[in-house]
Amino acid sequence: MPKRLIQRYLPDSREVRRHPWIRRFGHRLHDPNLWHLNRRSFAGGVAIGLFCALLPLPGQMVAAAALAILFRANLPTAVVLVWLTNPLTIPPVFFAAYLFGCYLLGKPPVVADLANWKALLAHFEAIWVPLLTGSLVLGTLLAGVGYVIVRFLWRWYVLRKQARRNARRTAPASRQAYAPVVRMREPKRPEQDPGPHSAPERKRAVPTVRL
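Below the sequence we write its predicted structure tokens.
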């Protein structure tokens, strides 16, 4: 995948290092693998970011940074993908995770909408287990799918770029091999003007007939 395009949407490494919660990791942030962008590190950062984005807990960025350090994945990618769950997307995402957790545990849902804070607080003891279960399972599945897709797309992009480079290299040789051979005609020699010392042409004798 194009590194320049990816880096355009990632936060600057200096800004990430200066974050008040992330800079507490100290010397662990000096690992170059956390900031280097390649197929393995980027896919790992995507998987960690997607997993932590579905955690129904505070401190998702800190969890993403800790897992990126543990697995030596790209830290900016993991941190930025955490924001897939934001104040606009949290209610539908976590409500879907809650319903999925109820389905896995075989329990009926007790609330119809997680945006209703009064109902959420009143039934918190009955909600948090299905919510956490559904979030962990969905986060794991989403992380695995994201990891495989990124690895595949990165490999496909590299192979396509290499094929185009090889095609450009072989194109001039193929043109020379199949180019038509053009034979140049020799220019006509100009007729030489007989000089004064040249021998006169002999006239053919015409036979005479006597009557």
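The mean pLDDT is 82.
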